[in-house]
Amino acid sequence: MVKTFHLVLGAIPVIIALLISVPMLTKNEIPISAANSFDTIEIEYTKHQLKKLSYGVTERVGAEKTEILSIKNDGALKYSITELGYLQPDKRSKLDESQLNKIKAIIKETGFMSIPSESFPVLEDVTEYQKSNVKVTLNGRVNQIHWPEQNATDGFIPPIITMVETELDQIMSEISE
Predict the structure, then answer these.
(1) Which residue, 93, 41, 32, 67, is CA-closest to 165?
(2) What is the per-residue pLDDT across 49-96, written as a single tens digit (0 to 9) for each?
(3) How large is the greatest C-alpha to C-alpha distance in the chain, in angstroms?
(4) Which residue among 2, 43, 64, 66 is buried most deeply as judged by most CB within 10 Å?
(5) Are residues 15 and 48 in the same domain?
(6) Are residues 13 and 39 in the same domain?
(7) According to the model, what pLDDT value does residue 1 have?
(8) pLDDT band for position 36 (50/70/90)?
(9) What is the pLDDT of residues 111-160, one digit of tens each?
(10) How many CA atoms does the CB half-sphere of 31 hold within 13 Å?
């Protein structure tokens, strides 16, 4: 009788620990609690649609379209687009606090700020491709990364970069509508 009682009593903390840990382990999102109100962040995200132009002996890479998204610490957004050399009027908006905290958490918790700012070489035979750049200032620390789309390089683009790119592309598409 005493052994059964001790067994049941010992199982209670294990069950409670499982109830707490299982949802945290199976959730594939980064917890927003990682971002706190003392964090300051500024992000500048740029996408270039590039085309290689050949002038006989020389080659030049030119941008057909450039999109720039700036996010300030207070959530202020500025979206600029240049298409075929013509600058369109800027669009301004404000990012809600939950989205801003989500981006802060992704950048803080994934080790994004520790990624070296090495360049990814573009393949020689690629004539049209997208090249992206993100400059993040988190709590005074700056990291800037440049990368082409995956099919334009034989280098491996880390999933952390594509995760941040996906979030910023989503914001960019919402504000450009």
Answers:
(1) 67
(2) 988 877 767 777 888 889 999 999 999 999 999 988 788 888 999 988
(3) 92
(4) 43
(5) no
(6) no
(7) 56
(8) low
(9) 888 888 777 888 888 888 899 999 999 888 999 999 998 888 888 888 88
(10) 7
Per-residue tokens: 109: 């918790």
Q: What are φ and ψ of residue 88, in 5° steps? A: -90, 160
Asked whether the beta carbons of 100 and 130 are under 8 A apart, the reply is no
Check whether residue 25 and residue 38 sit in a common domain: no
21 and 41, same domain (yes or no): no
d(CA 22, CA 88): 49
Pair 48, 131: CB distance under 8 Å: yes
Which residues are paired to 168 by β-bridges? none
Label each residue of the chain as H, E or C: CHHHHHHHHHHHHHHHHHHHHHHHHHCCCCCHHHCCCCCCEEEEEEEEEEEEEEECCEEEEEEEEEEEEEECCCCEEEEEEEECCEECCCEEEECCHHHHHHHHHHHHHCCHHHCCCCCCCCCCCCCEEEEEEEEEEECCEEEEEEEECHHHCCCCCCHHHHHHHHHHHHHHHHHHC
Tell me the two tokens of residue 105.
Answer: 């958490």
